[in-house]
Amino acid sequence: MRSGVSLTAGVAPGAGLGGELLGLGLGGPLADDSGIAARVEGRPVRQQLAVQLGDLIPEAYYFLRRLLLLRLGPPRSIVDYEVQFEGGAMGKELTVKGRATRDRIVEGAALVLRERGIDQTTLDDVMARTHTSKSQLFHYFRGGKEDLLLAVARFEAEQVLEDQQPYLGCLDSWEAWQQWREVVIKRYEEQGDRCPLAALSQHLGRSTPGARAIVVELMRRWQEHLAVGIRALQEAGHLPREVDVDDRAAALLVAIQGGVGILQVTGQSYHLRVALDDAIADLHRLADQRPAAVAGR
Question: Which residue has the higher pLDDT, 88 or 195?
């Protein structure tokens, strides 16, 4: 048996199925919070106190984070959760060097989780990959495993959008939409049946403050990018003004997520291709319905 503290308290079979959206609200809180019970405000706690409060401290920690969320209000972006809980209300602002160290730990942890999966990854694996000590790990992630997994989930959410650039940010022509479509399909074909963000979302579950919001915010930003692209087509005269931009953007996002969900079950990208192609073809059909004067612009 491999040594080290496991990063998982048990994930339901099928974790990661269904794209970034599936797994939300499934599963419970991390059962093993020994890292939290062993440290308070970054200082070791006597062993007997850790034993006595082993069940109390994690619950108090979750309660405090929920209380802070209510006090600070809902986040405006994925990064806001990090600032509220890790850089602002829960600790001091990080220096440039500290931020770089923290980012290195998160990126290294993401690589380990992708290679081994949540079930098989331990904190020792992360420390070995990132050349980090346990004290450093708890310095940057005061909540232990939960905070580290949340940070990796934020990183993976950012990667979903980053992998679609520069095309996602410049959907102002039909050629750009076709290039974006090819990038999306290639990304998910290469990812296959293992979605890191979906697995993390399912593992963390609804009971972890901020976990659900990461995916919700990702979907909001993704849909907004698509909406901006559709508006750009309207501005260029490629689409009628009466097209409902938000509805079309939502339909495109649903096509992607539905196709990715089936891809993760079957290993085949056929449904993703068909769904995305049909959603884009619908935009083309709307373009063909433009009045002749507009179409000739």
Answer: 195
